[in-house]
Write a structure and sequence with these properties.
elongated, alpha+beta, 5-stranded mixed β-sheet, single chain, binds zinc ion, 255 residues, 6 helices
Length: 255
Amino acid sequence: MAFVSRVVAPNPGPYTGPGTNTWIVDAGPVVVVIDPGPDDDSHLAALDRRLAGKTVGVVLVTHSHPDHLPLAERFARPHKASVRRYPDLDDGDVVRGGNVSLTALYTPGHSADHLCFLLADDGAIFTGDLILGQGSSMVTYPEGDVAAYLRSLDRLAALEPRVLFPGHWDPVPDAMGKIAEYRRHRLEREGQILANVRRGEGTAGELTRRVYGDLNESLMPAAEMTLRAHLKKLVDDGLVREDGEVFKAVGNLGG
Ligand SMILES: [Zn+2]
């Protein structure tokens, strides 16, 4: 059994929760560190304090977003540890650090370069931003890919994990329940958007207002980019057609 603990980076916010979780997987004198987080002096100092006397075997990064990656090289260098992330690590690659062995799972959707890490002996998966401890993950156009995101959720479910260690908020003890909840949430949103397009064509901006209603103006851009990511999948699935700026339903003349 590995001992898993975290140091939370001081970058709280609407999308980062209390801050980014830097996970430490400890099974003896050698540890594996996942997602060093933002380039922040106090977070670096907090990590080094926590790891005093330990050897860092390897540093893993789930994806290259600015709240996960930037501190990695600076943290790893004095520990003489290597930083591993996609694409130099790919699906199925096994990384060892001391007695810890983790398998990389290529899980795009939130970002195109996203990896999760499976700690098979403990039935645990480090999920980065694919699944969070609270709320829902951002899957936004143009980087986000809803179809890939759903496949990545299925990939995790097939492994039947017991616990998830997310990139933000607390560990998730009911791993399978959370994966199912995330899947349901995405499909409900997709169904809602498709039903809306079927009621009447519209631009992405118009559809966003129809689907999300009276949203705070500051949240509108993110809502529209989420809606656009869903529209892209609906267009790819042949259910919606893009005509200039306007999105129209396909093959549903009866409404
Ligand atoms: Zn991210």
